[in-house]
Design brief:
Length: about 240
């Protein structure tokens, strides 16, 4: 890990969050997911509303319980951070591909219908469709890293675990949580979500743990997901299409 500031909140820095505050923050992450799931606006420009609410709800909850300070997971973002994010984005693609390829030898894989739908879209339609995901993918990092920090706080301050052990438990719990959020997307294919989505999540989480910067893991996440979208687009519009 780098020599910069420690991870925020779990140890009372930059501000201590009460047990009730942590409960509100974690609940807000679940609420944000429910809003995204049950209040989707599929068409532009209202599709930005769901993405914005998904991202804003847990951030507002965090600010409310931390004295309305700016969220400490976000740090200054420079050229070095961009390079790290690109590297982790590519690593996420590679690791999840390998995990998915191995798993496909043993079970039937469920396609991501959102990704496959891009194959039939035009270029402008694809850009309009993808624009809100820039916000949503930042939100996915928020609703994953906040529970991670909450579990670290629980392990370190209430269960008396060492910092190292608290990080391991927090990564495991937040990975399971992130995989569970994707179950509806993959038709409740539990193994696929645990193995492929879980693998991608661990790599993305490592990018945050290394840099303590949610902008880095967010950009890595965008690179990973947008590579899937544009691959689907190219397959649908290339000389050898997906139906050929």
């Amino acid at each position: 890990m780098n020599g910069g500031p420690d991870y925020p909140y779990y140890n009372g820095e930059p501000v201590a969050i009460t047990p009730g505050g942590w409960a509100l923050v974690v609940a807000s992450c679940a609420m944000a997911f429910l809003v995204l799931t049950f209040w989707p606006f599929p068409y532009f420009p209202l599709n930005f509303v769901s993405a914005a609410l998904f991202t804003a709800i847990p951030l507002v909850a965090l600010m409310a319980v931390s004295g309305w300070r700016p969220p400490a997971m976000f740090r200054p973002f420079g050229a070095k951070d961009i390079a790290i994010a690109i590297g982790f984005g590519l690593l996420t693609i590679a690791c999840s591909f390998v995990a998915g390829f191995i798993l496909s030898r043993f079970i039937d894989m469920t396609p991501n219908n959102v990704v496959t739908s891009v194959a039939s879209m035009g270029f402008v339609e694809t850009l309009v469709f993808l624009s809100p995901t820039l916000i949503q993918l930042v939100g996915e990092e928020v609703v994953t890293i906040l529970p991670l920090l909450g579990v670290m706080w629980l392990c370190a301050t209430r269960l008396g675990m060492t910092r190292h052990s608290a990080i391991i438990v927090a990564v495991a719990v937040s990975t399971l949580w992130f995989a569970a959020l994707h179950l509806p997307t993959y038709d409740w294919n539990i193994l696929q979500c645990l193995v492929t989505i879980g693998t991608a999540r661990i790599v993305l989480t490592m990018s945050y743990l290394l840099t303590r910067n949610l902008w880095v893991s967010s950009l890595a996440h965008i690179i990973n997901d947008w590579s899937l979208f544009f691959t689907s687009f190219l397959l649908g519009h290339g000389p050898i299409g997906v139906d050929s």
